[in-house]
């Protein structure tokens, strides 16, 4: 049976675990209607369109 020769240090353990805990940047796509960058499969908050149809009426903040 395999037995470790020495205790694995906290730095070595955390370095190994940290590789798999990295956050990835969200994938942004361009809205087909207004060109705003949005998350995939979401209604555009700027124009309210999703897949060529308007689902919400955007609020004018200006």
From TrEMBL:
BP GO terms, sorted: translation
GO annotation, cellular component aspect: large ribosomal subunit
Keywords: Ribonucleoprotein, Ribosomal protein
Top-level taxon in the UniProt lineage: Bacteria
InterPro entries found in the cross-reference section: Ribosomal_bL32 (IPR002677), Ribosomal_bL32_bact (IPR044957), Ribosomal_zn-bd (IPR011332)
SUPFAM superfamilies named in the record: Zn-binding ribosomal proteins (SSF57829)
Keyword Ribosomal protein listed: yes
GO molecular-function term, one example from the UniProt record: structural constituent of ribosome
NCBIfam families reported in the protein's UniProt record: rpmF_bact
Family: Belongs to the bacterial ribosomal protein bL32 family.
Protein name stated in the entry: Large ribosomal subunit protein bL32
Originating organism: Teretinema zuelzerae
Encoding gene per record: rpmF
